[in-house]
Amino acid sequence: MNSFFYSINATIPIFLVIVLGYILKQIRVLNDEFVKVSNKFNFTITLPALLFHDISTTNIKEAWDLKYVLFCSIATTICFFTIWILTKIFMKDKSMVGAFVQASFRSSAAILGIAFIQNIYGNSGMAPLMIIGTVPLYNIYSVIVLTLEGAGSSTEGIVDKIKHSLINIAKNPIIIAIIAGLMVSVIDIKFPIIITKTVSSLAAMASPLALIAIGAGFEGRKALKKLKPTIIASSIKLLIQPAIFLPIAILMGFTDAKLIALVIMLASPTTASCYIMAKNMNNDGVLTSSIVVLTTLLSSVTLTLWIFILKSYNLI
What we know:
The protein has 316 residues and is mostly helical. It has 15 helices and no strands. 80% of the residues lie in helices and 0% in strands. Helix 5 runs antiparallel to helix 7.
């Protein structure tokens, strides 16, 4: 029962903020210009601030576990390329490929992960190590697939596509923030309190603003037309990935906080930043927002299921 309430407390408030954004748009408190500006602001300022804050305030040297970080990175890589290859083969509407792939493999590791683990263990546990192993790859792979599969990309040659992807990776503010956070943590740089509080304030804005923008930008009628890919992507995100990789993680000896962090990595809802990146990189924002909403709604049930199974076997 405790696991059920942990999951409800971590996911339902997120869904309710999305609903609030949708309602505010319907009663015209918010408009399309707000959605456009807030998406850009989130992508360039608040999400980078969140990732920089989480990583830079973690003692990387003390918490470092190479085996665990490699597992997170390899599992993420396998999920990404498998989903991309199968989507390219089976998805008829090629305009949805980039959005579908990104939303199917990418979890809410930074935004939901630490909060969820804190609910269970009282601290961030292994979330920072999981974030280091996955979030840089989430963003690099997302930039690649959204660049190569985005609107207008088909007119470019393969060399131009690769060049464009590398440029986008190098200048992506989220990736820059992750690298900067790692450097600050390793070197153990201490900023003045005024800077720390400023970054913390910006980081605190990332999740609620992104969720409000998702709700305000949600186009219900269009989303219903994309219900099938939304359901398939949600199944991959919440059920298939954890069903494949959690047993492998258990066989490798991961338990307790490390296993909970892997549950977040593999089975948490699609992160709101997927929508922000998809919209900013000329991909299908309607499909992405639909997957974010559905995975957020269903994750209170599926996360409870995975935690119940792990507790039943005394693994957490």
